[in-house]
Amino acid sequence: MNPWIVLLGLVLVALVFVIVPVGAGTFAAWRRPVRLTCPRTGTEAQLRVPPLRAAIASLFGRDAAEVDRCSLWNVVRDCRAECLALPEASRRPVPAGTPPPRPGAAPGLHTILVPLDGTPGSEEVLATVADLARAHRATVRLVRVVAPPEAVPSEDGTRVLVYSDQETSRQELETQAYLREVGERLPGVAVESAVRFGDTVTRIIDEAESAGADLIALASHRRPVLAGMFRRSVAARLRRATRIPTLIVPYGQRRIA
Asked: What is the CATH number of domain 111-250?
């Protein structure tokens, strides 16, 4: 018998009965966020691990994975994800998009996250948000997500005129100035601001979870049904990705009816 055929058969058997089940099991285990007791703080934390990377890591006998998001990262510094070494039974999966726990937080509307993109249309949510914030004495946290900047080369491409870190600093300063100007239009409301770089929906959710937002409020275009089938808005993606209540104010509607 041809030894190469035997070898191929063994590889296929390993693939079907070992690699695929192990990878699929690990992927399923980490597909949803989990809650556990943080070994550093002794309090409940909610974390997410990239399931695909976790599955690949397990196939090569490495540690379970690395943490992609943790609800305690705003208070725990230099975390090395010791929690992943805890027994598997200590992890409690929760539905995707579930807001992280906030021990000791009183019920009610305390923090409203408002994503803005720098356009007048996105700012049409502000009047509604101001009314809600004043009625509930809530804090409004403005956030704008910016695409990660790249280095700016010269016209002939022979040298770099502006490095990416310089461009990042410039964009952050400009965006913070814009958010301060917007905040000044909300008299009688406590306003905070944040600038984030990366994917819009991912960074909005990160900010909402780290800030303990009770509500995400944003303005959105009215899209034709056919157009919506081919292009999902940020608002639609947010509703799918998080269970934090989301208030959508259509462009042109400045108050809640």
From this structure: 3.40.50.620
